[in-house]
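Researcher: First entry.
Model:
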Amino acid sequence: MSAANALLSSIHLRLAGDAVLTALIGPDGIRDRLQTRPKLPAIVIGEMETRDLSTVTEAGEEHLITLEVWSEGDGRRQALEITAKVTALLDNADLALDGALLVNLLRISARSRREPKTRYYLSEIRFRAVTE
């Protein structure tokens, strides 16, 4: 398994294993895409960019990951509440990866907005992870 896939799998396990987050989004609230008629709120695993970060002696990668929190019912307040919980679960988390070592995982930014032409709110959380 690649470090990127192992990282995504571990992030999914951490989020899905939290009872408070599951109460906020439901048992099937973590997805890899937003469906046409989505059941909200939901967390969607968005963009991921991976770059080589190897040194002369060590292989390494940098991963920039975007998690999207979608909400409609309680709008921005609900999206930001879920964003705060996701950040608490993942920022500087020590996750076990299959076949790789996670050096660090840090939240680098978050932004929220109302999506035009819908009643959905979107909060995007960007994380930077380094793996060896």
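Researcher: Second entry.
Model:
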Amino acid sequence: MDFGITGKWALVCGASKGLGFGCAQALAREGAHVLLVARGAEALQAAVDRLKADPAVPAGTTVEHVAADITTVAGRAAVFARRKDFDIVITNAGGPPPGDFRDWDRDAWIKAVDGNMLTPIELIKATVDGMAERGFGRIVNITSSAVKAPIDILGLSNGARSGLTGFVAGVARTSKLASRNVTINNLLPGAFDTHRLRGTMEGAAKKTGQPIESIMEARKKTVPALRFGNADEFGATCAFLCSQHASYITGQNVLIDGGAYPGTY
């Protein structure tokens, strides 16, 4: 299937590893030029090198990078100084830390909302009008399955990402965007084999005194697929949402969790 995005320009945030890299890789393999953004310069360079060496990436595909914190004004300025217009934008930022809501002060909440709600909104604001003028645009926000099934210790994430979800539900359905072939959707990952998941599992292992392997196996058993997801399959789903074939899908929350969410809707 030809996704129809060869030669399009994609901005992928949090792209040095994990789900962000999976999205960047899938888009590049479809012939989209990609600009990868992440805070860690060394890991980001390694990701770029990996894509440039990937035999599945078509010849002539451009892979660029900017080492910056996309959640800051300066970081976003650095990105748009490199390139103003994008056809595809993948928003992604590290989730807030887990904990007890009684311990979170105003600064903790502001940081969570700034990184996981306001930053994606700023990126949407900066790019959708240009997309509409050109008659093509795809924005995919990487959020969390906690939007559908809140997790008690992830209150900061639950709140900030749910705010973004509500915003997207409205703006994606405006005729000025939807009628101009500009879509905005959210991808909601469940348990994926990423550094963040392993970090959470390591914390649980220290707290309980159990080996991390036991913690990981127990977590897998809570997923009907009996495994964690991987970045390749997440990226493939992202690439489809960015394709010409997904032009009638907008304002949606696409849950990728191996069947863990127990609800009907």
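Model: Note on the second entry: The first strand starts at residue 9 and ends at 13.
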